[in-house]
Amino acid sequence: MNDLFERISTSFHAQGLMQTLGASLVSVQPGEVQIVLPYQKALSQQHGFLHAGAVSSVVDSAAGYAALTVAAEGYEVVTAEFKINLMRPAIGERFVAIGKVVNAGKLLTVCSGEVLAYGADAAAAPKVVALLQATIVNVKY
Amino acid sequence: MNDLFERISTSFHAQGLMQTLGASLVSVQPGEVQIVLPYQKALSQQHGFLHAGAVSSVVDSAAGYAALTVAAEGYEVVTAEFKINLMRPAIGERFVAIGKVVNAGKLLTVCSGEVLAYGADAAAAPKVVALLQATIVNVKY
Amino acid sequence: MNDLFERISTSFHAQGLMQTLGASLVSVQPGEVQIVLPYQKALSQQHGFLHAGAVSSVVDSAAGYAALTVAAEGYEVVTAEFKINLMRPAIGERFVAIGKVVNAGKLLTVCSGEVLAYGADAAAAPKVVALLQATIVNVKY
Amino acid sequence: MNDLFERISTSFHAQGLMQTLGASLVSVQPGEVQIVLPYQKALSQQHGFLHAGAVSSVVDSAAGYAALTVAAEGYEVVTAEFKINLMRPAIGERFVAIGKVVNAGKLLTVCSGEVLAYGADAAAAPKVVALLQATIVNVKY
């Protein structure tokens, strides 16, 4: 498992965009990866909420890395396509993107994802702000 | 037309994420908006190409603003959902995201989008790296 | 609950396509609807498997009716869009489409769906052949 | 070209669902396929319009066959996923589904599609009732 975390972490830190957004890898399990993104004004849309592009960026990455956790040796992954529903305004102090493998084929892996918004009240339940469904391709390198 | 550009431009500049990515609004026509994004390492994925999240961010914004150009007075827009195909590695010096209105309903506007990659060779034709289909909601404010 | 089943059932039986496909409504709960579709050659694609169009038809209907179970009085629903991953060949004797509400807004309801394939062996676990994510609009009638 | 039409036509006629729906192949060009579907009550949803499932079935098939026209020798195609926007009620006497190749990769082909509705008035312009974006996989047989 430590090896798995390290493998994903090395790739994650090589993603300039994840550093620019201020995202961190928080959990790597076989078939599931979580990324946290603290809110900052620099990631906002015009009303000050988290921009759909930032929401999409972290959950696409979480889904892609979830697929990577189940890819065969010698393969890496690229996102062929994803679809995301932005179900409510992304208002919060901290966002957690969760990517999960739904079906791992030889060639294509289908993942689902969601983004949870956490507010200032630590006791309050998070709200699901986005729902994703993605197709990831295994590519030999 | 100038009024239209100004209206979109004001909203665009209020988007922290567009500033953080270094994106600019280049063209606003009724039903079509173009955004340019110069490549920088800070927007990359692990291989140095433009991250799918950055690609998605600019083309989602272009589609949303295209919808806004045809929205009725007193309405603004939010993206309900989008689907994007990342058709080839986003390699280039400069990317142009084009959002277009396909169908404008009273409540929902359907937009298509694409992202073109331009390389160092100014004479070379750009490559379409991504294709988007989005559903935008008109919201009274 | 009986009222709910009857309300959905009346609409379901008015759908010519569901009759033509041979689909039946098997379960209606608040937020979840199940439809069963027995395999027949008349619904096949070129290899004899269940056609993606038939798969999509029943799971789109299941998702739409799931949304209807949570719609306010005086509203009906229409599917604005859906996205479906056809994860493996739809081989089976009987298919069960399950639609579930993920988020019910005032205007839009987001549903997920899946299609399970059951074979001749009653003891064998079904296989998930398709995964759906849909946006349903509440419309006043 | 005649060979191409014949190759697609043979596969099309082996699709039980296309026969059941009453769909016909009308045009096969490299990268573009058209299918026509006459309206009948047996394909309706609860208001008598063409069911979204029937709309999806024909345009998914048109997109898949468009991909097949550009697939390499010895390959056939399967739809990995598609996303469809149902932009207006599918009211008409006759529907034409058009599938087009947007990008043909070695492994994956991205297609767009649309469904046009034609009414009784032959002089009237058709209405675009649905817009599709699909990912098709090339599979060696």
TrEMBL record, chains A, B, C, D:
Highest rank taxon of the organism: Bacteria
PANTHER family: ACYL-COENZYME A THIOESTERASE 13, THIOESTERASE SUPERFAMILY MEMBER-RELATED
UniProtKB keywords: Hydrolase
Organism: Comamonas sediminis
Protein name (Swiss-Prot/TrEMBL): PaaI family thioesterase
Domain Thioesterase: 47-116
Enzyme class, broadest EC rank: hydrolase
Single GO MF descriptor: hydrolase activity
Protein family (similarity comment): Belongs to the thioesterase PaaI family.
EC number from the UniProt entry: 3.1.2.-
SUPFAM superfamilies in the record: Thioesterase/thiol ester dehydrase-isomerase
